């Protein structure tokens, strides 16, 4: 893998003296910020690494489906303002929540090693989706998860589920749902792995682009940050998520359509599985790709080929026109 990916200038900059991480205040976001804080502290023992906690619009609007309130950007905007104002140097996000096209002036500077990227089945009374009786209520706000569930289990009732992880678990435990589907990564990070009754296989439960990975966003103009963060980049993860994000970007990158893209390594070959579907699961375009990937360009070319395959199958007809 290319060395040039690891350093923007090739020269070693002075070590940082102080770094501020902007983070949402949910328990998962704080775990992620503390994880990054520990990594930076280990890398730069003389550096004072602080966390600036913030509440975002996405955390405040909890009564509507995510796809209806303006999408993923809602979780990152306030953090970007903190970077612009110089109150923070970096923002850590679940990569899944980072828009496919970065706003002008901001870069996705670093992608850290990926956690388990699978979706997980969580229930107090049932061991698997297959065990759920007719009419059972399954909570998820992801259109991607909803489309697969509707296609495979038309007898289940899929209902929206918003809020942070603890809120969602609380709703399950109060009996509002018989089961809920969540990203395994978040549950594991918060020590809730024991609540997982079943891990859903990538086929057909293909994760969202970037699921399970952490992305670090910085100002493009920050003088040293790319070099400082370079050691935290995980190349296998960076290449995999770059292919996934390319598929998503080509298809409009919104969360208003069920869209899945997930890449895994088989030796030096990256294999990617992706679908675009209707929310009722009745229409689906599926595409797979596999190839030797040794650079960002290779990864993006693989993602592009998969996106073109989906579009050739008529995926565009499943994507609502973006109203902004
Ligand atoms: N859309 C919200 C979101 N963003 C990241 C995660 C989980 C952690 C991850 O995928 O990195 C979740 C919760 C979920 O999908 O259950």
From TrEMBL:
<feature type="modified residue" description="S-(dipyrrolylmethanemethyl)cysteine">
    <location>
        <position position="255"/>
    </location>
</feature>
<keyword id="KW-0808">Transferase</keyword>
<feature type="domain" description="Porphobilinogen deaminase C-terminal">
    <location>
        <begin position="239"/>
        <end position="311"/>
    </location>
</feature>
<dbReference type="InterPro" id="IPR036803">
    <property type="entry name" value="Porphobilinogen_deaminase_C_sf"/>
</dbReference>
<dbReference type="InterPro" id="IPR022418">
    <property type="entry name" value="Porphobilinogen_deaminase_C"/>
</dbReference>
<comment type="similarity">
    <text>Belongs to the HMBS family.</text>
</comment>
<dbReference type="GO" id="GO:0006782">
    <property type="term" value="P:protoporphyrinogen IX biosynthetic process"/>
</dbReference>
<dbReference type="InterPro" id="IPR022417">
    <property type="entry name" value="Porphobilin_deaminase_N"/>
</dbReference>
<dbReference type="InterPro" id="IPR022419">
    <property type="entry name" value="Porphobilin_deaminase_cofac_BS"/>
</dbReference>
<dbReference type="Pfam" id="PF01379">
    <property type="entry name" value="Porphobil_deam"/>
</dbReference>
<dbReference type="GO" id="GO:0004418">
    <property type="term" value="F:hydroxymethylbilane synthase activity"/>
</dbReference>
<dbReference type="Pfam" id="PF03900">
    <property type="entry name" value="Porphobil_deamC"/>
</dbReference>
<comment type="subunit">
    <text>Monomer.</text>
</comment>
<dbReference type="GO" id="GO:0005737">
    <property type="term" value="C:cytoplasm"/>
</dbReference>
<dbReference type="InterPro" id="IPR000860">
    <property type="entry name" value="HemC"/>
</dbReference>
<comment type="function">
    <text>Tetrapolymerization of the monopyrrole PBG into the hydroxymethylbilane pre-uroporphyrinogen in several discrete steps.</text>
</comment>
<keyword id="KW-0627">Porphyrin biosynthesis</keyword>
<protein>
    <recommendedName>
        <fullName>Porphobilinogen deaminase</fullName>
        <ecNumber>2.5.1.61</ecNumber>
    </recommendedName>
</protein>
<feature type="domain" description="Porphobilinogen deaminase N-terminal">
    <location>
        <begin position="19"/>
        <end position="225"/>
    </location>
</feature>
<comment type="pathway">
    <text>Porphyrin-containing compound metabolism; protoporphyrin-IX biosynthesis; coproporphyrinogen-III from 5-aminolevulinate: step 2/4.</text>
</comment>
